[in-house]
UniProtKB/TrEMBL annotation:
SMART domains per record: Lactamase_B (SM00849)
Residues covered by the Metallo-beta-lactamase domain: 58-221
Protein name: hydroxyacylglutathione hydrolase
Cofactor requirements of the protein: Zn(2+)
Family annotation (InterPro entries): Clx_II_MBL, HAGH_C, Hydroxyacylglutathione_Hdrlase, Metallo-B-lactamas, RibonucZ/Hydroxyglut_hydro
């Protein structure tokens, strides 16, 4: 979905939240809407529902619900109580925790969430032994189900050596979703704490770029405005990036998330996804994609805009 369509969709959400009935629903979500850095929003389609649950300063947790069976998965549930409130509102059954990587602001709620739902066995997926409560370690290409939804694991090491992205599809063929943790952000990517530019090239270009263009991207942090500011430093003439930057600032001014994006939008605007593009390479004074990736990361680390 082009970002302009998402934009109009989110404007509808913004309008809808002015409706008193829905405002009540938002404020009942958790103890107070003020405890969130953004308004919690829900993306619904006939086969699956995804609730964005803001956490900490700028993290996003997610609740993925299979509409057919009402089974659900929590993605990076660092604040378990907020996830439990969302589960209660959805009246669904938690079967699964999807952990993108071991960093505390993603994985530290696992133990508590498992203990708070003692009635059933929760399968805790992840690709790293450092993840708390991990009971099912996965690798690239592994597949499993959440209700009737298919989840495929994409091994994307670099930010950490055990980072996994989760690609979700349904048999009805509606828009897929991918949970990208701290590998792919809207307009940017995670720092290379445990990896090299060629590892991030493999994650972003070889793996994530090849997903269908309409795949919705749900990432781990609200970093979009700063990321797009840097993207415009790299490509000042990119009109799609300019427009998306304006839109993102407007969203944040209204306390709304800039998530989800789509693979198609990222390919048009995210410099780290565009290291094969000649304008991006020219900025980095190289014609080689992996060196371009390395240059961008270094420059972004020191970028103050
Ligand atoms: Zn991280």
């Amino acid at each position: 979905m082009p970002w302009t369509r998402i934009s109009s969709k989110l404007k509808q959400v913004a309008k809808a939240t002015l409706n008193p009935a829905i405002v009540r629903k938002v404020s009942q979500f958790g103890t107070s809407s003020r405890q969130f850095h953004s308004r919690p929003i829900t993306i619904s389609q006939p086969d699956m529902k995804i609730r964005l649950v803001p956490a900490l300063e700028d993290n996003y947790m997610y609740l993925l619900v299979d509409e057919e069976t009402r089974q659900c998965a929590a993605v990076d549930p660092v604040e378990p109580q907020k996830i439990l409130d969302a589960i209660k509102e959805e009246n669904c059954t938690l079967t699964t925790i999807l952990t993108t990587h071991h960093h505390w602001d993603h994985a530290n709620g696992n133990d508590k969430l498992v203990k708070l739902v003692p009635s059933q066995k929760i399968v805790v997926y992840g690709g790293d032994d450092r993840i708390p409560a991990l009971n099912t370690k996965v690798g690239h290409g592994d597949q499993f189900k959440v209700g009737n939804l298919n989840v495929k694991c994409l091994f994307t090491p670099c930010h950490t050596t055990g980072h996994i992205c989760y690609y979700v599809t349904s048999t009805s063929g509606e828009q897929p979703a991918v949970f990208t943790g701290d590998t792919l952000f809207v307009g940017g990517c995670g720092k290379f704490f445990e990896g090299t530019p060629d590892m991030m090239y493999s994650a972003l270009v070889t793996i994530l770029s090849k997903l269908p263009g309409n795949t919705r991207v749900f990432c781990g942090h609200e970093y979009t405005v700063n990321n797009l500011k840097y993207a415009l430093h790299v490509e000042p003439e990119n009109t799609t990036t300019k427009e998306k930057f304006t839109w993102a600032k407007e969203q944040r001014a209204n306390n709304l998330p800039t998530i989800p994006s789509s693979i198609e939008e990222e390919l048009k605007t995210n410099p780290f996804m565009r290291v094969d593009n000649s304008a991006v390479q020219k900025h980095c004074r190289t014609s080689e994609p992996v060196s371009t990736m390395g240059f961008l990361r270094e420059e972004k680390n020191n970028f103050r805009g």
